[in-house]
From TrEMBL:
InterPro entries (alphabetical): MADS-box/MEF2_TF, MEF2-like_N, TF_MADSbox, TF_MADSbox_sf
Record-linked PROSITE patterns: MADS_BOX_2
UniProt-recorded Gene Ontology molecular function terms: protein dimerization activity; RNA polymerase II transcription regulatory region sequence-specific DNA binding
Major subcellular site: nucleus
SUPFAM superfamilies from the UniProt entry: SRF-like
Residue stretches in coiled coil: none
Organism from which the protein derives: Adiantum capillus-veneris
Source superkingdom: Eukaryota
Protein name per its UniProtKB record: MADS-box domain-containing protein
Pfam name, any one: SRF-TF
Protein location: Nucleus
Amino acid sequence: MGRGKIEMKRIENSTSRQVTFCKRHVGLVKKARELSILCDAHVSLIVFSSSGRLFEYAGGRSMSEILQAYCDATHNEDRSRPIFHEAKDTTDFEAVRILSWLKKV
């Protein structure tokens, strides 16, 4: 018997929200790592918690290499091809901002 569906809405109780974030964050990193290993994919994952704490994972290559490849790919992208993120301009800006931040580190 499977689990019941969870309604997708913000968890109001801050303790429950933090516990859920921790558990789901670990699961998300595990899935990113599996995808990187099983499929020889270059995967980067950047997550900011509600408190602003940064969590990141890079598999296959370094984070800066993956972000640079992303910037290069989206800059030269065929605009007729479907994209999987909604706010393209914001995403590109964020990728460039993160890449420049990583170069400083």
